[in-house]
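Researcher: Here's my situation. A collaborator sent me these components and asked whether they could plausibly form a single complex. I don't have experimental data yet, so a predicted model of the whole assembly would be a useful starting point for our discussion.
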Amino acid sequence: MTSTRKEPSGVVGTPGGRPTPVARTSGGRPSPARARSRGRGGAPYVFLLPATVLFALFFALPIGYALWLSLHKVEVKGLGLGAGARQEVWAGLENYADALTDSELLAGALRVVGYGAIVVPVMLGLALVFALMLDSEKVRLTRFTRLAIFLPYAVPGVVAALLWGFLYLPDVSPFYFVLDELGLPQPDLLDGGPLYLALSNIAVWGGTGFNMIVIYTSLQSIPNEVYEAARLDGATPLQIALRIKIPMVAPSLVLTFFFSIIATLQVFSEPTTLKPLTNSVSTTWSPLMKVYQDAFGKGDIHAAAAGAVLIAVATLVLSFGFLRAANSRSKQEEAR
Amino acid sequence: MPTNTKHRRFVATAVAVTLGATTLAACGSSDDDSDAQSGPAKLTYWTWTPGMDKVVDLWNKGPGKEQQITVTVKKQASGDTLVTKILTAHKAGKGPDLVQAEYQALPTLVSNDAVADIAGEAGEAEGDFAEGVWQQTTLGTDAVYAIPQDIGPMMFYYREDLFKEYGLTVPTTWDEFAETARKLKEEAPDVDLTTFSANDSGLFAGLAQQAGAKWWTTEGQKWKVGIDDAATQKVADFWGGLVEEGAIDNQPMYTPAWNKALNTGKQIAWVSAVWAPGTLTTAAPDTAGKWKMAPLPQWSKSEDVTGSWGGSSTAVTTDSKHKEAAAKFATWLNTDQEALAALAKEGGIYPAATTAQLSEAFAEPPAYFSNQPDFYTRAAAIAKTTAPSAWGPNVNVAYTTFKDAFAAAAKDRSDFGAALTTMQDETVADLEKQGFEVAE
């Protein structure tokens, strides 16, 4: 799940739906003076009300509840049988301490970092290359190719994982059959290092098309005069791509990178779907799977809440850290 | 099986004595709704048994109509997911009236006060069930937390034709089982007798149960966890040894690869339970009529014990406003001959009620085993030898840990004993974290 498809249990409120590529708003904002002079009544607040209520009900409240849960735990008396044997008590930061010292959560985080290190560069690299190729004038069948590359994104993540999972299983996969017929070595894709490749492959297959469309749309909006000028200056197509196109679509690259990081940190459905097929994927393979396991396998919603909050914080720090870094760089460039 | 009965009594008394006090407290809570019994009752029932709606129709048109008790089926996912859902619903006070619960989940549900004691309403049903089965719904106390529905006595399934072809005999002891696996490897290196799969904890729990393991017992007000007891260690070492030497496969079951292995004779036996014909029908359709069922191999020649894998019960929740009506339905569903025949036909379950095991619904063998006319007669005989089980309040944790620890051990063909220790430690740690007192 490395595109922006929504996870069923999204931890961080990623903007819903498919994002429109970078609509930069600049100018056109009414001056503060004019806004103040117009009506001092509660009209703005009335307009704000629906959004505020919805935000409070479906966003702030659940997060608040998760925080509350994460600070509590259940305590059992005696054998824990019969009524009143369980009590919810204040736990302070105990759940967080447990989660942070849990080697399985840390190991899961490391696994996801390794997985992301493959997925994000490969997927975005391919998306960029495809977008540039589709944008060049010499390519034929643009529409068909665009659709063909985009199509896997329309396949639900679980279905994609199942599909690839079957292809990875030596006993039922046509690939292995061919390898066997040709007398070539047959690697075990569901174990060790290759497992990361196998998982990444599913994400890249599913996510490249979406990211390509984002970058491609942004390429299409570059005015033709820019290319004309470049050509007059004697720039080759390669130079145009490297010196003009890529810098001009940098905002969409930042955006796709941002979404990819979030999706990677929340990887859940691919490993969960592959899990029954192999001994190599544990029930706590990724941090989000650990949260799921805590909540629905062990029935400990308090530990699960603490884990979820930690993942949310990590995602926020990483993604906004990246955005800030990207922003300050572009500001420096502007200043130059 | 004298040893068997002794075990059962031991567990029953141990738990009964220590739980006396708590049981009384639990009984009290179920009385306050008795006034809500008069008048028509509408009940909801959470179950995952296929075709249950048709069985419930029989009730709604027959005895239910007379007593003005209408039951509505809400189809659910099975296993751990449903337990979590029941607990969540109970927390919100919105639980259904009746739930299907696996035996090993009952202590968790009881410990969360989600299922009611129906000893007063349904206690008489006891006579319909084998002692070891009934004991799982009482947790060894005077309370009755559920009515047994189906059971899964374990058996040994094998390809009769291929056993003949490779010159193998059906193993009656686990030693013979190991020899059979090795001999098969010599005869046909590409073929495995079976696999050790870590993706269904119930299989391992059943095998340990057969060996006499008691994973959860009580001492005073303390729980004692015996997952790494001698009996379970014996089972873990046995399977770990076979995997390590490569005598059997180490890949998980229920995968497309596993289906293919069974269907093409790459795996020629399966340690399973009475419900295996259903699974084999879909997993290995081409080999219908070529399989046979035999009792599970024993740890010593003189023994005759089996474990159980699967099986569930019908429980009444503490949230129900019509506990008496709900208990009436649960009793009818699991003891009435008409209901049990429908359950067998529509849901394909193997009934816990002993009289139903030899009823007309089970006169014919399953279609897949048409070559074994006495399938259900043998099954009923094997069911009688089921060892008692001892479940505790965090079976889910033990089961989850099993999956991860044993999957890793099977993959690396490494020490199963270490995996078992992990399972024990995690289970104890979880109990202690929840505040249970754990005896050393």
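Model: Some features of this prediction you could bring to your collaborator: The radius of gyration of chain B is 22 Å. The CA atoms of residues 397 and 427 of chain B lie 6 Å apart.
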